[in-house]
Amino acid sequence: NAGVMQNPRHLVRRRGQEARLRCSPMKGHSHVYWYRQLPEEGLKFMVYLQKENIIDESGMPKERFSAEFPKEGPSILRIQQVVRGDSAAYFCASSPPANGGDTQYFGPGTRLTVL
Amino acid sequence: GESVGLHLPTLSVQEGDNSIINCAYSNSASDYFIWYKQESGKGPQFIIDIRSNMDKRQGQRVTVLLNKTVKHLSLQIAATQPGDSAVYFCAENTAGSASKIIFGSGTRLSIRP
After folding, report:
1. Hey, are the CB atoms on B100 and A59 less than 8 Å from each other?
2. φ, ψ at B83 (rounded to 5°)
């Protein structure tokens, strides 16, 4: 049973470009969460999604950031017009519906570097 | 300019000794707590969890203690091994809420040979 998968593992963008991060949850999981981590810090919640629905986006910056979890395919975190402050590790987690989202299992992360 | 994050507190332990990592949580309404281990360059790995109706839970070589009175959580690792070197995060959530996890600031565990 494959774990949470994220790609790319490393992404380099120049200021002003778009970054697109993908997350495939564990098989059978319908809840997806995105977190951001700066060096030497804990993970900070960004957004929680279920299929075709954004449930909680209280941690998402108001501008330039968006997320989706379509009926088919991976969840996507999109960052438009990236700035250097967006450089961080972005982690996706998933949990099964029966679990109510208590235990979240994390992917390996995407490390975004903005030049 | 480049931002500088806070240095993580570090716990240095002799190989074979027991490790105790402490955490204070913030939300009195939290009733579900998790410990994660994060190795360099990897995502957080679930270690053990505990619900607020318990004060102790044991796993393989790990024990979590919960003191709701003072909002304190600890992780004990028995017979610490080199592979235990990592950053350990406590995290809190509300059981069954299917909501965000709130992470603590983390502790770096370093093993001396």
Report:
1. yes
2. -70, -10
Alpha carbon A71 to chain centroid, angstroms: 17
Which domains, from first to last, does chain B contain? 4-112 (2.60.40.10)
Contact at CB, B95 and A102, closer than 8 angstroms = yes
How wide is the angle at C-alpha A45 spanned by C-alphas B76 and B62, nearest 5°?
10
Q: Which of A42, A95, A108 sits opposite B106 (nearest CB)?
A: A42
Nearest residue on chain B to A5, judged by CA atoms? B43
Instruction: Give the β-pairing of A88-95 and A110-114.
Output: antiparallel
User: Is A103–B103 a contact, with Cβ atoms under 8 angstroms apart?
Assistant: no
Average pLDDT, chain B: 87
Q: What's the pLDDT tens digit per position in A20-29?
A: 999 999 998 8
Q: Taking a C-beta distance cutoff of 8 angstroms, is the pair B47, B75 a contact?
A: yes
